Amino acid sequence: MRPGVFTVYRWELRKLVALKRTYLGLFAAAGVPLAFTITLALKNGQPNNVPFGAYVHQSGLAIPLVLLTFASAFLLPLITALVAGDIVAAEDQNGTLKTVLTRSVQRGHVFFGKVLAALTYTLASMLLLGGVAIIAGSIVSGFHSLTSLSGTTVSATSALALVLASFAVYLIPLFTVALIGVMLSTITRNSAAAVVGTLVTVLLIELIGILPGLGSLQPYLLTRQFDAWQGLLRQPIDWSPITHATWVCGLYCIPAIVAGYLVFLRRDVAGG
Amino acid sequence: MSETPVEARGLVKQYGRITAVDHVDLTVNRGDVYGFLGPNGAGKTTTLRMMLGLIYPTAGSVRLFGRDPIAEGAAALDGVAGFVEAPRFYPYFTARTNMHMMAAYDGGDASSRVEDALATVELTGRADDKVGGYSHGMRQRLGIAAALLRRPKLLLLDEPATGLDPGGMRDMRSLIRRLADDGMTVLLSSHLLAEVEELCDRVAIVRAGRIVYEGALDDLKATAESSYRLRTTDNDKALEVCQAQAGIESARREGADIRMDANEPAIGELSVALVEAGLQVTALVPETATLEDLFFHLTEGSTPGEVTIPETATSIVGDQA
Q1: Does residue A115 belong to any structural domain of this protein?
Q2: Picking from A131-140, B278-287, B297-306, which range would have the lowest pLDDT averaged per residue?
Q3: Most buried pick, A134, A183, B62, B250, via CB within 10 A?
Q4: In this predicted model, which residue has the larger pLDDT, B169 or B28?
Q5: B63, pLDDT greater than 60
Q6: Model pTM score
């Protein structure tokens, strides 16, 4: 039987496990919530003007939500870009892409195996960040009920479910960043250019949001979709930002994955 | 499935205004050990990459056992293996892990051949070392091992002995010879003339992206044996005899010798004529142009030795070069 996407996916994961670079991002994903929580434990202050910032000393479950807001600006896009931007370009630069493409696996399967691996790494980073934030937050501030954005009190177990769901919603724009990273990795054939290019893309989109006169574009900016999870923390739950984020992210990620796929299929593999 | 392992027709690859491969036609028949010979930058690697579907031709077509690697992708590489330039592996994996990965990407029962392939290239003892620590020669051998996993009927090798020390070169050639003796068709690109001379029975010589000769190596070399050097006790008189003798051409003085172009029967008759003329022959030797002479002639247009292009086979130097 001819090998397919899952054969590639399995080996891509194995490669990620073997690479030191992988752990750099995961270390940041675990280290930032840990450092944040330790700082909160040592100081009495709290983050201002951030959703749930006022509750970080009342419930440990507020801490992962505060981190979601902080991490969207730079941390999680960076962690995502580290792997997504590298996943094709590194093989191009090292010459291993030609090795793989002269076996029995189709180019398209290689591409989608890599896409799945990049998304899995993004998911792992999120789980690590969320897991460490929930555990460390609960140790420092307790596993207590949480005050929702509507001002109602949500029990600790319900709040935990909502926090986990928030992380899941947060993955929608983050996966989109990963797909943009894979596309740039395929097109640029240069890891550094793809990683930096992914971050610059996110920052440029953010910049568009603060430019005067472009306010009408705000609902369609990728970076704005990082706040969609907040709809879950209202009573009753407001699904509209989530459905909005889903289709807006589709406008970004579908062209990215199609462009990446077509370029990967048609490209000359002349490196190495 | 076609029986012809490689058929390239009108293959062209352009990078902007640069034509790296210019209307290459070549045919590798079953059982050939086929040398693809040319200087660095002549377009050998680009041609091999097109054969393996790694790069897209600007024009022309390639068929491997009748299948098109560009249109069919990996499916056209069934029964085909090899590497272009230096074989590359994942340096952070051991050789055995790399081989298992390649086997997984080959599918079928390829993984059951990992140990045999490693043994064939004598890497079993180092199979659990990371490839990052391998020497160039070991990586080349691992490249062959990875190719063998596919149980290929056609092996495409791009300069497999380049960069190896003399012992490594000898081992690599011996391995290729062994594989060819087992019935594998081999297409071997090289700029190492000794390697091609030792291994190949048919060659294509490429110059600036164009094939300037394609045919049997013996045919190419045979034509170079038509030049002879003569030395006698009286070269002036001997030159007159040579010039009068049928079948002797271009007889002329060259230092203390006379040089001429002739075939073997004419040389036999000449030796009799010289003796009949009362001359003592002190030397009458064929001036065998080496493959190197032929190579320079075909790829640089200069002639370190006197070389004529064979009329047999597919000499196309006049058409294209």
Answers
A1: yes
A2: B297-306
A3: A183
A4: B28
A5: yes
A6: 0.85
Nearest CB to B92; choose among A7, A18, A100: A18
Distance of residue A99 Cα from the nearest chain B Cα, in angstroms: 6
Host domain of residue A109: 5-266
| Average pLDDT taken over every residue of chain B | 85
Question: At residue B313, does pLDDT exceed 90?
Answer: no
Cβ–Cβ contact A271 with B under 8 A: no
Chain A touched by B139 (CB under 8 Å): no
Name the residue among B46, B87, B106 with its Cβ closest to that of A103: B106
DSSP one-letter code for B279:
P
Cβ–Cβ below 8 Å for B54 and A95: no
Decide if A136 is inside a domain. yes
Mean pLDDT calculated for residue range B236-245: 90
> Which tops the pLDDT comparison, B124 or B296?
B124
Cβ proximity of A116 and A9 under 8 Å: yes
Domain boundaries, chain B: 6-216, 217-311
User: What is the interface size between A and B, counted as CB pairs within 8 Å?
Assistant: 95
pLDDT digits (tens, 9 = 90+) for B11-32: 999 998 899 999 999 999 998 9
Q: Take residue A227 and report the two structure tokens written for it.
A: 């706040």
Contact B105 A100 (CB under 8 A): yes
User: Taking 90 as the threshold, does the pLDDT of residue B248 lie above it?
Assistant: no
Per the CB < 8 Å rule, is A2 touching B74?
yes
How far, in Å, are A133, A156, A261, B103 from residue A31 at the CA level? 10, 24, 34, 38
Q: Is the Cβ of B144 closer than 8 Å to some Cβ of chain A?
A: no
What distance in Å separates the CA atoms of residue A130 and residue A67, rounded to the nearest whole number?
9
CA distances from A121 to A99, A172, A174, A184, B309 (A): 24, 14, 11, 17, 61
Q: CA B115, CA B121: separation in Å to the nearest integer?
A: 10
Angle (CA) B219-B173-B175 rounded to 5° is: 125
Please check whether residue B24 is in contact with residue B11, taking contact to mean a CB–CB distance below 8 angstroms: yes
pLDDT at B163 over 90: no
For the domain B217-311, what is the CATH code? 3.30.70.100
Query: Are B187 and B157 spatial neighbours (Cβ–Cβ below 8 Å)?
Result: yes
Q: Is A167 inside any structural domain?
A: yes
- Please give, rounded to a whole number of angstroms, the shortest distance from the CA of A243 to a CA of chain B: 39
* Contact assignment for B104 to A101 by CB distance below 8 Å: no
Q: Are residues B107 and A7, on separate chains, in Cβ contact within 8 Å? A: yes
Mean per-residue pLDDT for A147-165? 93
Residue in chain A nearest B79 by alpha carbon: A104
Q: What is the CATH number of domain B6-216?
A: 3.40.50.300
Q: Which two tokens stand for residue A1?
A: 């039987």
| Residue B31 contacts A, CB cutoff 8 Å | no
Query: Does residue A271 form part of some domain?
Result: no
CB atoms within 10 A of CB B224: 22
Q: What is the total count of domains within chain A? A: 1
